[in-house]
Amino acid sequence: MKKALLAGLALTAVALGISMPAVAATATARMSLDVQEGNPKHIAATRFADAVSEATKGTVKIRIFPNSLLGAESESAEGIRLGSIQMGIITSSVFTTWVPQVQVLDLPFLFRDDQHAVAANAVLTKALSDSFREKGFHLLGFSVNGARQLMSKDPIVTPADAAGKKMRVIQSPIHVALWKAVGANPVPIPAPEVYNAMQTGVVDFFDNTATNYLTFRFYEVAPNYTKLSHIYAMGAWVVSEPWWQKLTADQQTAIEKAAHDAQADIVPLQAKQDEEALAKTVAQGATIHEVKDKAAWRELMKPVWAEFTPKIPNADTLIPAIEAVK
């Protein structure tokens, strides 16, 4: 009845020569997250969804699905590309098959600190948007999921401490190469198997984020935690390109602004949650180590840059642009 009424009003307006304002169509998106409720990424996504609904007067609704309910990150990315899922915050390394330029984000010590990683968002988004679009993704930007820190049975503070030890790594050539360069023996193991691998002695140490150290009870099998921040885990905020093209220009603008604001929110949320998480692990017997001088680590990892940057498309322009960000 509502559609018939609108159609009747439109015909009447045409007959009387009156122009009617365009009515934005209602659009609904399912947003995939790999984290649980309460995680900074989930909090930021919720704020994003609320801001979009308010800015578009309810014409765009975003439903958030945490805990990998829509599939693991690789499955969600494929779903977004094909249009069966409309949105997601996906770890950047998942996109290397489609957009090999994102491999630069796995280079060790690319970012100076949290602030540098956040500030680089605009440069990364501008440089990579076209490449994402060509593969079916509209890129809304990047957020910092957290810095990778070392988690081990025995204390690891200097590269010499890691030499000869078995290091669990993600299944990435860059991660394998950088730990070989340090002198460790890298062992690629899927994330769900890390706890058991540490418990059974398959590996001696691994890297992950502070919140996960508590959430997944890694402190039980890796009681030593070392703040190295050698690689930042970056999340790509992506939208299915076909779905994006169905939106009005005003709806697109509202979504982009809300995403940008939410992405900036994650780092302070993450910092607060990391501090609280580490305090809880210390209460359970964990020991936190600080690396005061990272020069030795950087020096040993330099060959990784020399080996991989020639293989990464546009690395010669993208890396200097990131490094120039203040």
TrEMBL record:
Q: Does the keyword Transport apply?
A: yes
Q: Which GO terms describe its cellular component?
A: outer membrane-bounded periplasmic space
- Please cite one Gene Ontology biological process associated with this protein: transmembrane transport
Q: Indicate yes or no for the key word Transport.
A: yes
List the InterPro entries.
Answer: DctP_fam, TRAP_DctP, TRAP_DctP_sf
**Entry-linked Gene3D superfamilies:** Bacterial extracellular solute-binding protein, family 7
**Signal peptide span per the entry?**
1-24
One Pfam family of this chain = DctP
Top-rank taxon, per record: Bacteria
Tell me which UniProt keywords the record has, alphabetically: Signal, Transport
PANTHER family listed in its UniProt record: C4-DICARBOXYLATE-BINDING PROTEIN DCTB, PTHR33376
Kindly give the NCBIfam families that the UniProt entry links to this protein. dctP, TRAP_S1
Q: Which family does it belong to?
A: Belongs to the bacterial solute-binding protein 7 family.
Question: What is the name of the protein in this document?
Answer: ABC transporter substrate-binding protein
What is the organism field in this record? Azospirillum palustre
Tell me the organism's taxonomic lineage: Bacteria, Pseudomonadati, Pseudomonadota, Alphaproteobacteria, Rhodospirillales
